[in-house]
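Dear colleagues,

As part of the handover before I leave the project, I'm documenting each prediction I ran so the next person doesn't have to rerun anything. This entry is a single chain, and its sequence is reproduced below.
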Amino acid sequence: MPNYILKFTGSCFIDPPVEITRLRLILTVMRGVCLVGLLVNLNGVIASTGSVSVLDRGFLYGDGVYEVVRTFRGRPFGLDEHLTRLRQSAAYLYMDVPWSDAHIRTEVERTLRQAVNDESYVRIVITRGAEDEISLLPGDDIEPSLTIIVRPIAQRMVLSEAGVHLQVSERLRTDRRALTPAAKTGNYLNNILALIEARRGGADDALLLNGDGEVTEATTSNFWLVRDGIVHTPPTEAGILHGITRYFLLQLLRERSIPHRETSLRPEELQTAEEAFLSSSVRLLMPVARIDDHLLPCCPGPLTRLLWEGLLEGMEAGMQAVPPPR
């Protein structure tokens, strides 16, 4: 394999093992003041930097899948559900995943142990791999690559009081018959362009419609609104990612007997929302303050607050029920 590489690094360079130990000691004293940069586990090798071949199909074509997990009490939350979706995304791309869930879980936990973070963002990336020929069609003998990226996030989870401004985008969500949004792939241009355009329009994020004019989701989050005391969210058939936090929220709504519907939403229905919020794995819930020129009456609203507290309680209970890693 030609030795052409790309390098990505964190904000700190930590190369010799002695320096890693020394930095840990410093951070133990200065925790909360200094944060270590990212750690990269590239095919089992953990370091502060990583090198990926420029011939890797993930770099060339976005030919890969990924998951983002956050930790809670220092441990990955919902990892089993994320790994299930990771395999579903890979199967959609006709891509083999040679590692077991147990192996990926072990590598995630091993990388987290070497980090000095109170809480972490964890990104698991599997690309189809690299080969000598540059061709759209992958070869039969190509070997996938596994990368795990860990970086610190805020220790304390706080529900935003300000909320976000969403702009209904003129750019449509990718049609699920072309490339289903249910697969979490490295091909993210649809979302990137919508987000750039929303920011240029003065909004924080975009809300995308499908080809039938129905609301789907924001660029990295599922969308929810409350009207007449009922929680509404677009169905998976609208062309959305099957969000893991969305999954836990639907469980919570059923457990608390809170009226809710997975139903098609039209843009004009957004104007009658009493409250709205986004859900994602890292932020959990983000209240919506404004959609286009419409200011929401409540931000965050009472149901948003209730669901936030319910999520945190469920996460706490889930962590207590799972034995700590060895």
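The two ends are 37 Å apart (CA to CA). The helical segments are 17-30, 57-61, 79-92, 101-114, 189-200, 244-255, 302-321.

All the best with the project,
I.
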